[in-house]
Amino acid sequence: MNSKFLTPYNPEETENRIYKLWEDSGFFNPDNLPGDRKKAFTIVMPPPNANGNLHSGHALFIALEDIITRFKRMRGYKALWLPGADHAGFETQVVFEKKLEKEGRSRFGMDPEVLYQEILNFTLKNKENMESQVRSLGASCDWSREKFTLDPDVIKKTQETFIKMFKDTLVYRGKRTINWCSKHQTSLSEVETESVEENTPFYYFKYGPFEIGTVRPETKFGDKYVVMHPDDKRYAKYSHGETLELEWINGPITATVIKDEAVDMNFGTGVMTITPWHSQIDFEIATRHNLDIEQIIDWRGKLLEIAKEFGGMKIKDAREKIVEKLDAKGLLIKTDRDYKNIVKRCYKCSTIIEPQVKDQWFVKMEPLTKLALDAVDKKEVRFIPDNYEKVFRYWMENSIDWNISRQIVWGIQIPAWFRGEEIVASIEKPDGEGWTKDSDTFDTWFSSGQWPLFMTGYPDGDDYKRYYPTDVMETGHDLIFKWVPRMIIFGLYLSGKSPFHTVYLHGLVNDAQGKKMSKSKGNVVDPMTLTSKYGTDALRMTLVVGNTPGTDLSLREDKIKGYKNFANKLWNIARFVLSQENTGEPDKELTHEFEALAKDITLDMENYRFHIAAEKIYAYVWHRFADEIIEESKPARAGGKIPERAGTLYYLLENSLKLLHPFMPFITEEIWGELSKENLLMIETWPFDSAQGKPI
RNA sequence: GCGCGCUUAGCUCAGUUGGUUAGAGCGACUGUUUUACACACAGUAGGCCGGGGGUCCGAAUCCCUCAGCGCGCACCA
Domain boundary at A338, A366, A392, which? Predict the structure, then answer.
């Protein structure tokens, strides 16, 4: 017996060595796996952002996806887990801008190409760091197939999809209301904003004969339309199109009465003025009635010339002063300070989103969401846990056209050209003179949405034929809107097939108190610290046992400690068994008992109940195998059965290692190596074959 | 406002399709230096399964309702 068994299990010493053994074996690549493997099983890894360290959420998904992959590999599938790295467009640009800020620099004014190159260098460096962390978590993914979301073929294919969609009239250029972040100087999609309820003063002003209410007096300079519901009896004497002279912020103006059903008669006074450039609903009303649309606030969030003396002021500073002026003019009627409204903010910097009207590219969602809903109806895609199907449907049924243009350099360029009113979608410059290239880049989710296709070499790669559609998409439930729907849509649109049949959604990893981890709260736990302290196997068990899909997890250090102890328990079981000579046939009763367990666990695994499977094998190994079977076998005990039991103990150890391997790959492989086996444990045969309904 | 989820032992959580005395880990308590392991072992205590109502032979599990907590979505100016 190896002398290393005389000391407690040492994960740090073991893990790198074992990982290298696996990687050098080539078996992460299913094409190298032994035996006649007919069926493929494929998982696409959600590519971690290459802009920093892995967090606990990454550790969780790597554990889960590795468990699935290792299980399927042992079950005889061509198991393929496709790793990637995400350039993470806007997110990385935000991280990089913070870095620039610290260095006293700013992206504004920088040459776009220089800026791009700098972010690229930054990202590639972080990519290596990220990859080494994924390895240290034991991921048995096929690195030979790794992709980066800015690989040349990914860029090209993304642009080709855009061109195809342009031809199919599924993308269009439109002047519409968009979410504008005045700090980051870019538009954002709905999922990149967050709405928070806030207490904002609600002002009532005298507007000619009317009383209007608003939370945004600073937008009111250009307001020359007063809108009410056509059925509102209070205002029946005013007719649509009628004009009125009235005194407003900067002097007398002419206002026009507009009747529109969008107005809620029961809210406020039932009358409002509109600012079409800076409000979605106002823009819609203005469009319906063909009204003037004028910009009041500039792209930096400051008031324009139209505000006269307030021009150049920031919204925050201007608001109160404008109210003061209106009050001085006797136009302020009252202020409701208890009013609560919803304020949209940039999800990265919390800057209040300023709705602006801008020419942008949009994806027409309705025909595409229909494809996705059909696929769900036909059960071509299912969700675990299944209540997410409802959430998914809700989003699909209510999604509005998707703004895919971003005014940042860090991303894939939109292949579009403009000349006057002409618009051409093309990677190359169109023939003729006077073309201007679109300077915008794609929303990251536009390319990430095609990730399962790109990872398998769509449209004509070998892997596309062999491994697409993939099987499971395992990701966080926070991506149910951002990512999952886009992948299903693009998969159906481009390949005619859903990119996967199962969506497994894991919960968030929170701190020990169940609070969300965040840098500002200072409660972030670095998974790398935990693995070096307790071992990767212990961390993986902690993240998996008792953690039901879709439910958030409180990461507690005492739990990890418990599984570190378990690793050591297993270590000592091995030590004990290895100290015996392997003689005698396995005991019939005990092997049957084990087979029943293996069957049970196999069913749990196949039905994605990893939280139960892990707990069962844990309980068996410790409390049945060690506490009872081994104890009873000891010669010192009355009726101790060594050495007749030795064969049984070897049988149970070997097969327990197999069942445990997906969960605790390092220590099981390490012990396996001491059993003088020909193969690596990672390619051993799983000890139960559910297809044949019997142990093998 | 709409939707989803949660509420089970001191703490963190399991409990697959309703079926015998409700489970785990940690913690607490009492013992044990028994040569695989003190990162251990043997054992003990602790729960009207959030409240109320219903269906059923039978409910932690299904239905209704109330309360508290968490999360998501939301163009009422």
Answer: A338
By the 8 A CB rule, do A468 and A453 touch?
yes
Whether A191 CB is under 7 Å from strand B: yes
What's the pLDDT at A266? 83
Query: Which pTM value belongs to this model?
Result: 0.93
A628 is a domain residue? yes
> What's the CATH number where A625 sits?
1.10.730.10
Assess if residue A635 is contained within a domain: yes
* A277: amino acid identity, one letter: W
The parent domain of residue A309 ranges over 201-338
C-beta separation of A377 from A412 below 8 A: no
Q: What are phi and psi of A256, to 5 degrees?
A: -115, 135
CA dihedral defined by A612, A616, A617, A620, rounded to 10 degrees?
170
Number of structural domains in chain A: 2
The tokens describing A387, both together, are 């209540």
Tell me: the pLDDT tens digits for A149-175? Answer: 999 999 999 999 999 999 999 999 999
How does residue A643 score in pLDDT terms, banded at 50, 70 and 90? low
CA of A519 to C1' of B16 (A): 38
Model confidence at A74, in pLDDT bands (50, 70, 90)? Answer: very high
CATH label of the domain that carries residue A271 = 3.90.740.10
Which nucleotides of strand B come closer than 7 angstroms to any CB of the protein? 3-6, 12-16, 23-27, 34-37, 39-42, 70-77
Residues 514-553 (A) near nucleic chain B, CB < 7 A: 514, 516, 546-548, 551-553
Whether complex ipTM tops 0.85: yes
User: Does residue A344 lie in a domain region?
Assistant: no
The residue from A338, A357, A374 where one domain ends is A338
Contacts with A11 (C-beta within 8 Å, 6 or more apart), sequence order: A531, A534, A535, A536, A537, A538, A567, A666, A667
Does the residue A170 lie in any domain?
A: no
Rounded to the nearest integer, the mean pLDDT of chain A is 92
Instruction: Render A39-88 in DSSP notation, one character per residue.
Output: -EEEEE--PPBTTS---HHHHHHHHHHHHHHHHHHHTT-EEEEE-EEB--
- What is the longest distance spanned by two Cα atoms in chain A? 107
Element (H, E) at A196: strand A193-199
Instruction: Tell whether the model's pLDDT for residue A123 goes beyond 60.
Output: yes
- Out of A457-466, A530-539, A580-589, least confident range: A580-589
What is the C-alpha to C-alpha distance for residues A572 and A5, in angstroms, rounded to an integer? 7
The answer to whether A199 CB is within 7 Å of strand B is: no
Chain A 360..389 CB hits on strand B (< 7 A): 387
List, in order, residues 6 or more apart from A251 with CB less than 8 Å away: none
Task: Name A459's Cβ contacts closer than 8 Å, sequence gap at least 6.
Answer: A453, A494, A495
